[in-house]
TrEMBL record:
This is RASF3 protein. Keywords: Cytoplasm, Cytoskeleton, Metal-binding, Microtubule, Phosphoprotein, Zinc, Zinc-finger. The gene is Rassf3. GO terms for molecular function: zinc ion binding. Residues 163-210 form the SARAH domain. It comes from Steatornis caripensis.
Amino acid sequence: KDVQKEQEPHVYLSKEEVKEKIQSYNSSVTDKLKMTLNANGIYTGFIKVQMELCRPITVQSSQSQGRCAHSNNETAFYLPDGCVNTLHISSTNTVREVIEALLKKFFVADNPAKFALYKRCHKEDQVYTCKLSDREHPLYLRLVAGPRTEMLSFVLREHETGEVMWEAFSIPELQNFLRILDKEENEQLQILKKRYAAYRDKLEEALGGVWKPG
């Protein structure tokens, strides 16, 4: 269960503290995704971002897997559940830049402003989620939390938390969404028809057994 949590205050580290943190971080890494400290004090490393998108994304590609609908050179499709992407970033990269890099990696044509990056923390048998501000630095959060994703993980979601802001989508995007919904509605209708046809057959079979002539 996700529990929304207020943002924690940002604690800045000295250069020596950063160096010690990176050494400790690298000694705990199990997947070879270590951090590197440069002479100028900027460090680089990797973060993993889980994609939790409820609506289809629009990409500029004609070779996309999954349920899709086409419009010119753009394709709208749903990302698979639990899709995780690994990014190599620096300590200077902001949340907004990370979102843009993720979308660029997937060739997503949607406006980056439609998406938000969340941090997810596990504490006391509960899962806390907090939307990160555009100015925060994900690699710094990764360094402070350590490499264990059960302690801290990143999640990309749609930016809207309430009503869907459909006016933020383009006409081709909306048309693609309608085609996808029509296809899904037809698929669900066929499933329901088969289910009730089978149910009707069983009822007729049962009635035939009850009303046998004496």
